[in-house]
UniProtKB/TrEMBL annotation:
Pfam families: PRA-PH. GO terms for biological process: L-histidine biosynthetic process. It is an enzyme of class 3 (hydrolase). Keywords: Amino-acid biosynthesis, ATP-binding, Cytoplasm, Histidine biosynthesis, Hydrolase, Nucleotide-binding. Gene3D superfamilies: MazG-like. It comes from the Bacteria. Belongs to the PRA-PH family. It is found in: Cytoplasm. This is Phosphoribosyl-ATP pyrophosphatase. It comes from Lampropedia hyalina DSM 16112. One of its GO terms (molecular function) is phosphoribosyl-ATP diphosphatase activity. It catalyses: 1-(5-phospho-beta-D-ribosyl)-ATP + H2O = 1-(5-phospho-beta-D-ribosyl)-5'-AMP + diphosphate + H(+). One of its GO terms (cellular component) is cytoplasm.
Length: 118
C-alpha cells in the first residue's frame, strides 16, 4: 500500500515527535534523537551541510557532471533535516505548507516588497 505525499509528511512528523528526548527518544539508538539532544546547533550544522551538498549537486547537474537522482537525494536530505529543525521548535511540515499556500497567487516581487524592512 502506497502512502500519499500528505500521509508521508504526517507520518514523518509523528516519527520525529516520538524521537524527541522529552518523548523517550534515545540518542544512543536514534540518529534523530541524537540530533535533537544537541539542538539546535547540531541540527543547524546538518541543515547547512545538506544545503551545501544540494547546491553542489545542482551545479554538477548543470555542468553535465551529475545525475538528477543525486540532486533529488540531496534535496531529500535537506528537507529531512529541515523537518528535524522544525520539530525542535515544535513546528511541522504543515506550517511550511500553510505558508506556501498563503503565498500562492502572490507575485514573489510584491510579496518581498511587502515585508517589513530589517
Amino acid at each position: 500500500m502506497s502512502l500519499s505525499h500528505q500521509e508521508i509528511l504526517e507520518h514523518l512528523g509523528r516519527v520525529l515527535e516520538s524521537r524527541k528526548p522529552i518523548n523517550g527518544g534515545d540518542p544512543a539508538t536514534s540518529y534523530v534523537a541524537k540530533l535533537l539532544s544537541k539542538a539546535p546547533d547540531a541540527i543547524l550544522k546538518k541543515v547547512g551541510e545538506e544545503a551545501t551538498e544540494t547546491v553542489m549537486a545542482a551545479k554538477d547537474l548543470q555542468a553535465g557532471r551529475g545525475e538528477a537522482d543525486a540532486l533529488v537525494y540531496e534535496v531529500a536530505d535537506l528537507w529531512f533535516h529541515s523537518l528535524v529543525l522544525l520539530a525542535h521548535f515544535d513546528l511541522d511540515a504543515s506550517a511550511v505548507l500553510h505558508e506556501l499556500a498563503r503565498r500562492e497567487g502572490l507575485s514573489g516581487l510584491a510579496e518581498k516588497a511587502a515585508r517589513p524592512a530589517d
